Batch of 4 targets.
Target 1
Amino acid sequence: MNVKIGLVQSRCGSVREENLERSLKGIAEAAGRGAKIVCLQELFLTPYFCQDEDAGRFALAEAVPGPTTERLAAAAREHDCVIIASLFEKRAPGIYHNTAVVIDADGTYLGKYRKMHIPDDPNYHEKFYFTPGDLGYRSWNTRYGKIGVLVCWDQWYPEAARLTALSGAQILFYPTAIGWMEEEKDSQGASQHCAWETVQRGHAVANGCYVAAVNRTGREDALEFWGSSFVSNPFGEVTAKASADREEVLVADCDLGGIEEIRCNWPFFRDRRIETYGDLQKRFLD
């Protein structure tokens, strides 16, 4: 089965409702171009607020499911498409998550994934805001294919991609917010971008699946988000790619029917020596 997927790469302003409307227009455009699964970028409702630590920003969080998932469910029904969206979830006072939701094409809320790997780097102070996820790695049967969702920093961890693929995912979606710091761009920018794209293309090869990463674009305070949203096929080939500095709706074809043949010809799952991997549960092999 062939399915078109859409990635909505955009800028984020300070007005929440405007960001939502911009994303809804992106969903409509993607669906109008034939996309049946549409993914929004990480924390699409707000500017990337983790560049510093401010307890007042916990007020940006909301219940999941909640008011935003209701708006997205209506869009899914209207456009007959699956929607993946990253939200700032308020679970309880003092417990907040970076959470991706999956809504089926009929508007049914299928579930959520809570970001597991939480960074703490200059301008990425996520440990202050987000509790690590506790829902595990999983995938969802949607009207248009079985999909898995991971979020941004998760994309550097092959274990996360593997476990999600082992749950049956045919496409791994990565809502993302990654960019350059001005003082690093000239000396390290190309290398950083190359590493980001390459590791995800490797996940596609190692797991015999498609990978779709959607990143925001534009400058926000100290960060210049590098856009470049892309789709990789199971051979690690980039089949569609957005620009670095423009808002775009990227649409790409995925041949889900061919995944079984690829996994049979390159049987990485079959040949895994799972009895030898116990040390992966250790922090380091001293």
Target 2
Amino acid sequence: MIETAIENDVLEICMNRPEAKNALTHDMYHQLTEILHKYGSGDDCKAIILYGANSCFTAGADLKDFQRKRGPGDSPAVTFLRAISQVKVPLIAAVEGYAIGIGTTLLQHCDFVYATANVKFRLPFVALGLCPEGGSSLLLEKLVGQRKATEWLLSCRYFDGQEALDSGFITALTESGETLGKAREMANSLAGLPQGSIKLTKSMLKGWSQGGLQEAFDNEVKMYAERLASDETQAQIKKSAKR
């Protein structure tokens, strides 16, 4: 369900589970984490592109996984998010269709995000009885400002590509069907630049927040687990899973 290909020193990762709008399972998180650990240092590729099959990024986590008992420590999703936050080469997302939940929060860790105007983004955690994840309790405000971060996280409403662009959440808009082409264009351009300088500059841009980000991950893991174990949250998740 996770497919990869390398061309011109650029790794492409495709989330391919179209029957579920590319919703991510535990197995898919494990695959993504292994891929990022293998290629994220830049020893075997110069840029990474992430996209979804059938013109849909991802509908987020598979809600069935939320109905399983969770032990202490990081879930497969958090392990993946920590891995994506530490990728050293440029990470580029091509987003069409839906980007829900983790499909939105993972974009905070990408260096370039290209989307269409009609993409449906959503941060549904409160509506599910949960709390922010993916470092969004720290990063989202830094990207879009306190007012917009509060609105998106508390209201759980959908927002489109134009609003995401206006808020500074994504890099640029493209026409439908052209996000992957735009991502490839940027990846090939970056692959032709001095790689030591690319990785150093990315490290300098993100280094100031890494300590705070890992602390935010730790806090989110604890609070998320507490919410997930509550009767209120389980009732909301079961209701949402039936829709």
Target 3
Amino acid sequence: MRPANIITSIADVLAGVAVAGYFTRSLSFNLTPVLLLCFSTACLYAGGIVFNDVFDVETDRIERPERILPSGQITVAGAALLGSLLLMAGIVSAAVCSLVSGAIALAIALAALLYDKWGKHHPWLGPLNMGVCRGLNLLLGLSIVTSALAQWGLIAFVPVIYIYSITMISRGEVSGGERKPLYVAMVLYLIVILSIAVLSYGKQQFLITILLLLVFGFMIFRPLIKAIGHPAGINIMRAVKAGVISLIIMDAAWATAFNALWAAAIICILLPLSFWLSRYFAVT
């Protein structure tokens, strides 16, 4: 289920909630919808990852025979049941929050299954498909204030671009890759950083947002530059891992860009937790 990655999906939702202005509207806001959406995204992400391994079991028997399914530690049928229950729990918990949130959660589940079964095999549709999953995840948090979807919904294109980049370069993490996708990813990373910086310009927490974006840039560009210098599988894998976990810092930047400073602090706390989990569970 990639526990370290699940933490990043929770950070996405918290960022969406912050963009919606939910944390800054009142000091006595209801925490229940926030917890429901965080639980929803955790279940949706975990369910999507489980089905990814279910559909990949034959390939993993060749490329990653040590994984749970190809090694026979869990049956494919058992994993499929777990994945189904996780996706259903994610949809239901979001629907309890609101019907709009439930509809977005359903869209995430369908997009994840589309990627797991067909999308990942397409050279450009696959990365776009995965990006859409993350973009919808940000919208899931944004849906806590329904009117915010119309006002700020277009910002979902930013995580779409970012995850498109990561998914595109991840194709070389097994046997190595070419430099061209890595250079494209570098340009797209810069577009993402500049987009958040522009949206935060003139806001109260602009300088803190810029500081977070600098940290974010350091975390993603350092392994990417190393992979460009030597595009071996292990270097690309490290660049992908850094890109996924660094989502937490990007989400914190979203929060400060919309003046939710203490929400950004909570999101940042998730970073060491994700790093710790990544030591014991696979990220890619």
Target 4
Amino acid sequence: MRKPRLNRDGALELAVRYSYINLNDQDEDNNGEQTDYTLGVNWYINDEIKLMLNYIVAEPLGTKLYNGRLHVLQTRILFSF
């Protein structure tokens, strides 16, 4: 994968993702489905450091463990050497 071109302040990358999973399985007891929506921002500070931030909204439906909406904030730092 190609790295973005960096300027004096680095580079920003925006991401959007949609995912769906059907949890109905004959071998499992936790049936239902789940839909996830993700918004992400990546900041390439320089060629060696990248900060990543994701906001995820997960909507499990019809499961025995949880019904409703989950909000997840996820952050990561990548060091490349």
